[in-house]
Every structure is written in C-alpha cells, then in structure tokens.
Description:
Layout: H1 2-14, H2 23-41, E1 47-53, E2 58-63, H3 68-85, H4 91-109, H5 113-122, H6 125-134, H7 139-166, H8 179-196, H9 205-212, H10 215-223, H11 228-237, H12 241-246, H13 248-267, H14 272-292, H15 296-327, H16 338-341, H17 343-356, H18 364-378, H19 383-405, H20 417-420, H21 427-438, H22 440-446
Antiparallel strand pairs: 1-2
Helix pairs in contact: 1-2, 1-4, 2-3, 3-4, 3-10, 3-15, 4-5, 4-6, 5-7, 6-7, 7-8, 7-9, 8-11, 9-14, 10-15, 13-14, 13-19, 14-15, 14-18, 14-19, 15-17, 15-18, 15-21, 17-19
Amino acid sequence: MLLYFLIPWMFLILLPWLPQAKTRPLFIAMALSDTLQAIFGLSLGQSFHGSWWPSLGLNIALAVTPFSQPLLWLNGIVLLSIACTNQSPSRDSVFWLSLAYSGVSLAFLSRNLLLYFLGFEIAVLPFYLLVRKEGGTDRRAAALYFLAFSAIAGMFLLAATLTLVVHHITTFDSHVVPRTLQFSVYGLLLVMWAIKTPLWPFHLWLPRTHGEASTPVSMYLSGVALKVAPFGFLSFSSMLAPAIHHASSLLALWGALTVLLGSLLALGQTDLKQTVAQSSIASMGYVLIALSFGTSLGNQAAILIMIGHGLASPLLFLVTSRIYDLIGSRQIQDMTGLYQKSPALVSWLTVGAFAYMGIPGLALFPGEFGVVMVALQRDPVILYLIIPAMLFMAATWLRVLARVHFGHLTRSTSNVSSRTGSVWSAAWLGIPLILIGIAPIWWTHIWNWGGLK
C-alpha cells in the first residue's frame, strides 16, 4: 500500500529537476505504474495503521474496502488517459494534477476522519491554480468561484470532523455516535455534500469551472475529484444511520430534483462542453438518490453510477476538445455532418452520449437501473421526476448525435490529423465503459460485493 503513495510522491519530488522533454513520458510511466499498483497491488481488506498525532486524533489509518477499490481503479485509469492524450503538458500542470491525484487517493483510502479531510483539501488547491493559470479568457472568475465554493464546503467538513473528534470519534469504523450529536454533524456534512457533489442549487461553480478549465483539468475534475464528496457520504453513513434515515425521503426528493433540473439545463445548452457539464449534475443527482435510503443495493448503485460517470464524462470532455481542434468551435450547431470528417471521433462521442442516455450495455445503465429499483421499493413518487429527466437527457444527446451524424459539414476544418489521431487514446476510457456495462455482475464479484443485491 505504501508503494501506491510512494510512486506519485517520488515523481512530484523529482519533477522540478526533470527536463521538459522528459515530462510527458515520465508522467505516463508514473500514471501507468500507479494504475497497475491500484489494480494488482491493492487487495481487498489490505490496510495500514500508524501513529501520527494521537492527541489530536490524527492517525494514519488506510484500508481498501469493497467500495473504495473500484474508485481507486477509476482514479488511475482517468489519470492515465490524461497522460496519454495530453501531447505537450507543462511541468506545472503535471505537478498540480499529480498532487490532486495524491489527495484523492488519500481520501479514498482513509479510514481516519481528519485524514479524509486532509485528502479532501489537498485535491482543492491544485484545481484552483490550474484553472487560474491555464484556463480560458474568464479563468480568474471561474477559479475564484471554484475556490470560494470549495472553501465553504471545506469549512463545513472541518467543523463536522472536529465535532466528532472532540467527542473521541476519530475513524469511520466508529459505530457509537450519540443521537443528539448525529443531527448537528449531519447538517454540517450535508452542506459540504451539496456543494462538492454538486447538487442543485449549489451547482453554480461546476459549469463555470468546466467552461474555462483546460481539457485535462475537466477530465480529472469530472472523472474522479467529484467522487470524493459522495464517497465521504457513503463513509459517514454507517456512523450517522439514524439521521440519514430520518431525512431519506427529503434527500431522495432533492436528488430527483437535481436529476430533473440538470437534464433540463443540459437540454438548453448550445455549447457541447457545457452540455457535458450540466449532464454531470444530473448524474450526481442519481448518486444522492441511491445513497439516501442507506440500502445495500442503493450503495452499490451509487458506486456504479460514479464509475460510469467517471468514465463517460472525461471521455466526452476529451472528444469535445478534439472537435474544437478540428473545427475551431464547441457550438453544437457548427458540428453538422462531422462524421464525414472524423468517424472515429464521432464514434467515441456516440459511446459517451449513449452512456449518458442510460443505454444498456454501458456502465451508467446498471447504476441508474439500481436507482429505479430502490425508488420503486422505498419512494415511488420520485419516479415522477426521474422518468421525465430520463426523457430530457435522451433528447439532449439525440439532438447532438443527429447533428454530428447527418447533414453536410459546412464549417472549415483544420489539418490536425496528428492530434485527432490521438483520440484512440480514448479507448482507455471507452473500453472500460463498455466492459462494465456488459457484465456488471462479474465486476461486482471482483469487488467482493457478492453481486447486486
């Protein structure tokens, strides 16, 4: 387990002294080696414990759980896809992305409350600096939006964590939380989850950040970093079960509203990158519905949605970037007949779009189907919001697919065959998206879930 952390940290230490020409190949080597370490070196139940600052309640407590293992795999796969597709990364961007990767890994493995908070915060600053330095024309405002919302969420998470630590509850494995304490802690955590997941109406920072962020930043933020907050929800849920049960119907309704409004916002977009960003909000609404009831099936469905979204969203951000390289625009109306120019690019766009539409055989379908099953069992009323949302999401992406597959390309294209040729690196994301969708039960057995239940 220590090797999993040692690889990226050694890379971070050596990176400032490496020549620029070696940055990309060594970035790929680091991402590949750590991904292999996550898949083959981290086994279920593996743990590490050490004393760090016992008087403060801050000790090293790391463990691979059935729910953290697939997210650790996802973490490595997304970073590897970024390393392979980014042709000329700057040393600064590689450094900050690798630091964010280390923070997210720490959050996924941590069983100590303050250690989880530390990982959460380590992953925040790099994104602010990356957007601030390498974003678009309105990058300063977008970076400030991101930092402000993240800082507020971090304060609420710290307040909740310290409240528990003061009462000598320092790990996620603690099962005795006073009932009166649960509701105050749960209220603090709920604000953090709403901001960083994000949920409507606390989602405003996300589309603005994606709109200005570079492609690697959008890929990693949507693919992995957004999963830290809902994973925290899942980790805290066993400690706060009565509070979560008490608010389950309200949370499910909030999640369903997020799904519906996220789908409507996506349908109203004319910019493809903003369409992907707004669609992400809807997916996170499904996650909240799945987690709100605290059932085994709901928790499993939430992880499957996070995995599916973590593959589909960066895939679509990558494709959007290559389309912009090709035609110089992200406007959907400018993409008429794009299939004629780049069938491979449009094929990957179709895979990602089908995933967001919940088509069977792709990784988002099993999770969304699990949400529908949980809703039927616990609160069928929210289906009146979920079903229209599914139709709006389908309309959103069918509109895009009709535009790119049919008609004649009227916009002039750039000669960027060397860049668009690298779109086949999208296979790092597209192939797992298909494999998990085809045989979800097989993967749940690998992750020791015992199948979907």
